[in-house]
Specification:
Blueprint: E1 7-9, H1 16-31, H2 42-57, H3 61-64, E2 65-70, E3 73-82, E4 95-98
Antiparallel strand pairs: 1-2, 2-3, 3-4
Helix pairs in contact: 1-2
Length: 99
């Protein structure tokens, strides 16, 4: 079996365009026709740019956000943050992963 090599890295503010594109592309691949096309359009990409710019500007961003890079391209994103309620149920942990 061939191994797939990737590097985990802390993203920087100058990479928010790429982060936004990967974020929107991942949603399109995951949800496709289940969601309206507006979830994948330029306005959504701009909203994700603003979201990532804000998150990466936070003091603890270096501890909470990582990207997976393969051949110098972002291929995945993970962040940790406060746990949220799910379908009305309280969280069972203080924090959770967002992928």
């Amino acid at each position: 079996m061939a191994s797939v090599g990737f590097l985990l890295a802390v993203p920087s503010l100058d990479g928010v365009d790429e982060l936004a594109s990967v974020h929107v592309r991942a949603w399109r691949q995951a949800y496709g026709a289940l969601l309206p096309g507006r979830f994948y359009d330029d306005a959504t990409r701009q909203a994700r740019r603003e979201m990532w710019s804000g998150r990466l500007s936070e003091d603890d961003a270096r501890q909470r956000v990582r990207v997976a890079r393969q051949e110098d391209e972002i291929v995945g994103i993970v962040a940790r943050g406060p746990a949220t309620r799910h379908q009305g149920h309280p969280p069972v942990r203080d924090e959770q992963l967002f992928t």
